[in-house]
Specification:
It contains 9 helices and 11 strands. Strands 1-9-8-6-2 form a 5-stranded mixed β-sheet. 48% of the residues lie in helices and 20% in strands. The protein is of the alpha/beta class. The radius of gyration is 24 Å and the shape is elongated. It starts with a strand and ends with a helix. β4 and β5 form a beta hairpin.
């Protein structure tokens, strides 16, 4: 079912969560101008501000008012109905589609029971991408034993041999933090077990590994006493797409997880 409304608004903001209206008892959903009002058979009432709702999964025992459905459509909140066996019956989405921000989608992913595992699998795949790019550019100088050693240490354990001065990593972290903020991302998020995921350090390590794997030319400039800041800016000017590619990859992951 597709609903049309000319005033469909932007998607929920960062921190929005999925709302599950289960089948244990009957419920009625009404609304105010800014919130869904859910009442159960005991006349207990709960209010859910729509700004904090990213999507809704509803059982067939929930009675929806037309006003509540319209509010969800105006705010870009999709609703999926499940039968008693947990099978999907159908869904209702606004005609004027809006998509959650990267920050909201990432919050939803990491809040899922398997979210932290999916994120770590993605991070490992990005490490592999960094390694493969290094391997292609240095195919004539890398022997199989070296490749496997770096793969074991970097891809699976997150460690890379450091050839560059540590202050460069601090500049890298500062750059990553600024770029994450520009994309509306916090430096860390929390998973379903309330463990922190340090997004900024993970992205920094991806760039730091790339810098060290390709450290030959940079090391020469360090020996020539090129100022650290100038050295980093020179590297970044030539590799500005690296961080963007990682961000785009993360965006694909979280959006696929959200709309799977």
């Amino acid at each position: 079912m597709t609903a049309r409304h000319p005033l469909a608004q932007t998607s929920p903001g960062a921190g929005a969560r999925a709302l599950y209206l289960g089948a244990r008892d009957k419920k009625q959903v009404h609304c105010t101008e800014e919130a869904l009002v859910v009442r159960n058979v005991k006349a207990q009432t709960l209010r859910y501000p729509v700004a904090r709702v990213a999507r809704i999964v509803s059982s067939t025992t929930v009675d929806w008012s037309g006003a509540a459905l319209a509010l969800c459509m105006r705010r870009g909140i999709g609703i999926t109905w499940l039968d008693a066996a947990g099978e999907s019956l159908g869904a209702c989405y606004p005609c004027q589609r809006s998509h959650p921000s990267l920050a909201t989608a990432l919050d939803l992913l990491t809040d899922a029971p398997d979210g932290a595992t999916r994120y770590q699998n993605w991070l490992r795949s990005r490490r592999m991408e960094v390694l493969v790019r290094w391997g292609k550019e240095n195919a004539d100088r890398i022997d199989p034993m070296q490749w496997e050693g770096v793969k074991r240490e970097w891809v699976y354990q997150g460690h890379v041999a450091t050839h560059l001065p540590r202050p460069l990593r601090s500049l890298c972290l500062a750059y990553v933090g600024a770029q994450l903020a520009a994309h509306g991302l916090a430096p860390l998020v929390w998973d379903a077990q309330a463990a922190s995921i340090d997004i900024d350090h993970d992205f920094c390590e991806l760039l730091w590994a790339e810098m060290n794997l390709h450290a030959g030319a940079l090391t020469e400039k360090v020996e020539a006493e090129l100022p650290t800041a100038a050295l980093f800016e020179r590297w970044n000017a030539r590799n500005a797409a690296s961080l963007l590619l990682h961000l785009r990859s993360l965006h694909r992951l979280v959006m696929k997880a959200l709309y799977a």
